[in-house]
Amino acid sequence: MYRKLLLTLDGSDLSAIALPHAVQIATSSGAEVVLLRVIDSVGHIIAQSTPAGFEMAAGGITAEIAEQAVAAQRSAAQAELDAVAEQLQAQGIEKISTVVAEGIPGDEIVRTAEALECDIVVMATHGRSGIGRALLGSVADHVARHTPKSAVLLVRPQ
């Protein structure tokens, strides 16, 4: 039924609750598992450190500093994904790949699912509703609404 499963992880304990569900689907279907971690982009780091309407202040975040931060995030993210891949291999999953993408998480998850032709996206969700969702937004909601070719399994914390 499923050839390729995209499992999104962000390094948090919450995102890890989706792991057993992904393992169950992958082992029962023989699907390849693609582990995805989205990190900040250089532009996002610079934008976060610069107040709206202001020029970059002397001594502020430079492109070089932002690039170093992204490189550090990329290295840490890859190490975490490699560790998860080892866990999955120990559980009998043979086909595993990893992707570290830069950008806005919801957009990058959708883009990766489409680019890699994933049949299903498995991810954890806070399960927020109402004002909490309105204020904080929802990556899971964005993915569910904008992923037209893949099934989306949202796992809520118990």
Please write out the topology.
Elements: E1 4-8, H1 13-16, H2 19-29, E2 32-39, H3 42-49, H4 63-90, E3 96-102, H5 105-115, E4 120-124, H6 130-136, H7 139-146, E5 151-155
Parallel strand pairs: 1-2, 1-4, 2-3, 4-5
Helix pairs in contact: 3-4, 5-7
Continuous helix count: 7
- CATH hierarchy class name: Alpha Beta
In percent, how helical is the residue content? 40-55%
Structural class: alpha/beta
CATH topology (level 3) name:
Rossmann fold
* Order of strands across the main sheet: 3-2-1-4-5
Low-confidence stretches: none
> Any idea what the CATH architecture is?
3-Layer(aba) Sandwich
In angstroms, what separates the terminal alpha carbons? 27 Å
Radius of gyration: 17 Å
Q: Compute the number of strand runs.
A: 5
Taken together, the total number of domains comes to 1
> N-to-C SSE series?
EHHEHHEHEHHE
CATH superfamily: HUPs
Principal-axis shape: globular
Structure description:
The protein contains 7 helices and 5 strands. By secondary structure, the chain is α/β, with parallel strands linked by helices. It has one domain (4-40, 72-155): 3-Layer(aba) Sandwich (Rossmann fold). Strands 3-2-1-4-5 form a 5-stranded parallel β-sheet, with helices on both faces. The protein is globular. The mean pLDDT is 87.
